[in-house]
Amino acid sequence: MKRLGSLFVAAVLGSGLTLFTFQWYNPRSEGVKIEHIAGVPASQVAYRVNEKGEVVPLDFTSVAEKVTKAVVHIRSISEGQVNTRERNPDPIDPFQFFDPSRPQRRGPSQSSGSGVIINSDGYIVTNNHVVQDADVLEVTLSDNRTFKAEVVGTDPDTDIAVIKINQKALPYLSFVNSDESKVGEWVLAVGNPFNLNSTVTAGIISAKGRNINIINSNNSNNPQAGRTAIESFIQTDAAINPGNSGGALVNLNGGLLGINTAIASPTGSYSGYGFAVPSNIVSKIVEDLLAFGMVQRGWLGIQVGTVNSELAKEEDLAVSEGAYVSGFGDLEDKSAAKEAGIEKGDVIVKLNETPIKSSSALIEYIGLKHPGDKVNVTVNRKGKEKSFAVTLKNREGKLGNLKLETKVASASLGLVLEDLDSKALKRLDLANGVRVKSVENGKVARYTEMRDGFIITHVNDKVVKTPEEIDEIVKSKKPGDLITFSGVYEDYPKEFNYAIRM
């Protein structure tokens, strides 16, 4: 009996030991407890300093509510053919403007973009490519009120435009100093992508001073295209898409840091990076357009490139960064920099007290100056630094502001006209006529097939003998009035009629 009891105890102990051993080596056993501690975040909460200087948790709600009220939706309506790079981007070019591409076609077409109210009296800043070629601009506010807008002024060199609606007491955004923004700083992009009004996305500033060669680079109508463009974009990874053009890039206090302008994308949609014109450039453009009707921009009169290791080795430069002076361009004899003593092969390393590390940094700095401003330019010449006092000129190589040219009425339509002498009239068997010397960018080019050399004999059935007579007729027309140009070509006897609406 004792023996049986001993065997029973041994069996129990053996079973217990077996069970303990099984659970010890089996991590999936229900007996294993995993500890959970409630309420402990995986990482610390991010903080920011608000407008009052208080340290508060990172939160986008208040700034989003503030900013969306000052961002508008812009609908651009064109009644004729559209033929611009911005609306027909090269499919292999990764850098594209935000607006949906519009096919070349006759008849009405439209696109959309965004804008930022910068003044309570209805002044709105947007992109030039949003409003160019538009016959009608409609602005829709955040509260869904819609107004017609007029163009105050444009600057293709920065892709900035100012438009205005007839309203008062509007919410608006104030500019902040974009030079003080830093890579890694939180920003919000606000606009109307894909016609989705008041869309807010968040990201950081990925880089500053980006030059992506998109502004004017394929504009065949402008012989200076690509040479006068000013690009020093703020790069951000906040999600932006077609329709964001002209929208706001703001800091976490709701200050306007830039105007969203382009994206890097092989598909035309968000792929990670967007580009905004810095607020310091935008502010200068806006102030000039309102004060002078055109941008007054200072010029050094040089051609520059960014110094890199390859250029430094090729030109035997003593520095590895800066703006390399490769020449003086077409106005070499009027170059402000050359007159001051700057030479080809110099590397500009400082403007006043601002270090210059690239050509885009130089272009941005000088782009904020006016003709007549004085700038102290420090260059590295064969390993030695030299300083030169330069008085900036205008783009024509002269001192002083440029004057806004008043276009004749026919030129506003894109027509350059010239007289026909009596010999030409006799040869063509015409009693009267005015030759179209060239058809340039304008309504006639967009809405008709008129070619250079067309001889206008009548405008709205009225005989015309001089360019001045045509100008008087055009000036007498009001927006929406129909105007018809009748005439012939020298090499074709048939009469042609071309009609447009003013």
Account of the protein in words:
- The relative contact order is 0.09.
- 19% of the residues lie in helices and 32% in strands.
- The chain has 11 helices and 27 strands.
- The strands form 5 sheets. It has a 6-stranded antiparallel β-barrel. Strands 10-11-12-15-14-13 form a 6-stranded antiparallel β-barrel. Strands 16, 17, 18, 19, 20 and 21 form a 6-stranded antiparallel beta sheet that branches.
- The chain has 3 domains: 66-294, Thrombin, subunit H (Beta Barrel); 303-391, Roll (Pdz3 Domain), CATH 2.30.42.10; 413-501, Pdz3 Domain (Roll).
- Strand 24 (455-459) and strand 25 (462-463) form a beta hairpin.
- Residues 19-44, 81-93, 99-106 and 217-226 have low confidence and may be disordered.
- It is globular, with a radius of gyration of 32 Å.
- The protein is α+β, with helices and mostly antiparallel strands.
Give a quick set of tags describing it.
502 residues, Thrombin, subunit H, Pdz3 Domain, 3 domains, six-stranded antiparallel beta barrel, six-stranded antiparallel β-barrel, 11 helices, 19% helix
